Amino acid sequence: MVLLGALIFLTWPWGLLVLAPSLGLMVAVTLLVPAVTVRPDGISLYGVNHLQWDDVTSVRATTVIGLPYAVVQRRKGMRWWIPLYVDDRRGLLATLASRAPAGSAIYAFAAAGPN
Predict the structure, then answer these.
(1) Which among 38, 48, 58, 108 has most CB atoms closer than 10 A?
(2) In sequence order, which residues have a C-beta less than 8 Å from that of residue 40 and are 6 or more positions away?
(3) For the residues of the chain, what is the DSSP string, one character each?
(4) Which burial class, exposed, middle or buried, applies to 110 when counting CB atoms under 10 A from its CB (0-12, 13-18, 19+)?
(5) What are the domain boundaries of the chain?
(6) Exposed, middle or buried, 108 (CB in 10 Å: 0-12/13-18/19+)?
(7) Out of 2-11, 38-47, 95-104, 105-114, which region has the weakest mean confidence (pLDDT)?
(8) Region 74-97: what's the mean pLDDT?
C-alpha cells in the first residue's frame, strides 16, 4: 500500500489516470474469475493458464506470508504455484483427488488432505 501511495505521489496527476483503471481491472478479475478451476483434462489458473494432468511430475505444500500453496513441478515449463487459500480448501482437494488420474503426483497430494 505504501508503494502504491508513493507511486501515485511521484506520478501525480497523470499516474493516477493509468493506475486507477489498471487496479480496477485487477480487482474485477480477482473477484470475477475463479483462481483455480479443475477440468477433466487438468487445471486452469485464472482461466488463462492450463495444466494437463500428465504434465505434473511432483507437488509439494508450502506457505508464503502465511498463505498456503501447492507448488507443482512440471515436465516442461515453469513451476506452478496453485493457491490453496480458497473458501473451500477441502472441497478443492477432494475435487482434485476425484479428477486427477490415480497414481499421479497431484492425486497423491490431494488425497493426503489439507496440509
Answers:
(1) 38
(2) 99
(3) -HHHHHHHHHTTTHHHHHHHHHHHHHHHHHHHS-SEEEETTEEEETTTEEEEGGGEEEEEEEEETTEEEEEEEESSS--EEEE--STTHHHHHHHHHHHSPTTSHHHHHHHT---
(4) buried
(5) 1-32, 35-112
(6) middle
(7) 2-11
(8) 89
Cα dist from 12 to 6, 7, 8, 27, whole Å:
10, 8, 6, 22
Closest CA to 104 of 44, 50, 42: 42
Query: What does the block give as the cell for 93?
Result: 482437494
Q: Alpha-carbon distance 38 to 27, whole Å?
A: 22
Q: Identify the pLDDT of residue 74.
A: 93
